[in-house]
UniProtKB/TrEMBL annotation:
Residues 1-91 form the 2Fe-2S ferredoxin-type domain. This is Succinate dehydrogenase iron-sulfur subunit. Keywords: 2Fe-2S, 3Fe-4S, 4Fe-4S, Iron, Iron-sulfur, Metal-binding, Oxidoreductase, Tricarboxylic acid cycle. Belongs to the succinate dehydrogenase/fumarate reductase iron-sulfur protein family. The keyword ATP-binding does not apply.
Length: 235
């Protein structure tokens, strides 16, 4: 089938402003959008720029705005986008070129929440064990692939670039509720400030955008309750 692909293009070194470019591509219904983009780049316009890597929904590199919603190009089938598809870079990020956005600030915010195990006791000499129930408590947060789709879909980020954003909070949640970790108080202090969790307006765009099905808004609410009640065990 033939699909008209409207792609928002912008090269800061050459263009004064973004513009729309159109390509008619022959695809199979079960082709992925990434396949169609590759077709354009390899056979029509080699200057088209976008990120890609594993093509299996694991690396998260090909996140972009597809028909108005943040998705991974490698997970979207052509039969699901219709005969005309609009592709843009994710909102809330500076555009480097075409569909490639600058993720530096995104990863700076991720680092702010200390996304690693913190312990203050001596090395135990054995593994730090936990029960299946304790592991399940933070399981959802471990699924994050740092694609940035949730953060780029959030109106709070569009309006305030200083906000830490949903992806950083999800990764903080992963350690705040880990029974082996001893840095929860530090992270809750970071997230309790004005550009922390309280900027979330519970719009649920982030949960819809997550390609891994993480209930992002729910995890943010759990962090809010942990700050209020000071309890990471029963939230």
């Amino acid at each position: 089938m033939q699909v008209l692909m409207r792609i928002k293009r912008f090269d800061p070194e050459r263009d004064n402003k973004p513009y729309w470019d159109e390509f008619t591509v022959e695809v199979e219904p079960i082709d992925r959008l990434l396949d169609a983009l590759n077709n354009i780049k390899w056979t029509m316009d080699g200057t088209l720029t976008y990120r890609r890597s594993c093509a299996h929904g694991v690396c998260g590199s090909d996140a972009m705005r597809i028909n108005g919603r943040n998705r991974l190009a490698c997970k979207v089938l052509m039969r699901d986008v219709g005969k005309k598809v609009t592709i843009e870079p994710m909102l809330g990020y500076p555009v480097i070129k075409d569909l490639v956005v600058d993720m530096d600030q995104f990863f700076d915010k991720y680092k702010q929440v200390k996304p690693y195990l913190i312990t203050y006791d001596s090395e135990p000499g054995t593994e730090r064990l936990q029960s299946a129930e304790e592991r399940a408590r933070f399981d959802e947060g471990t699924k994050c692939i740092l694609c940035g789709a949730c953060t780029g879909s959030c109106p709070s980020i569009w309006g305030n670039q200083d906000w830490v954003g949903p992806a950083a909070i999800v990764n903080a949640h992963r350690f705040i509720f880990d029974s082996r970790d001893e840095g929860a108080a530090e992270r809750l202090n970071i997230l309790g400030k004005k550009d922390g969790v309280w900027r979330c307006r519970t719009i649920f765009n982030c949960s819809d955008a997550c390609p891994r099905g993480i209930p992002v808004t729910d995890l943010i609410e759990e962090v809010k309750r942990a700050i209020i009640y000071g309890d990471t065990k029963s939230v």
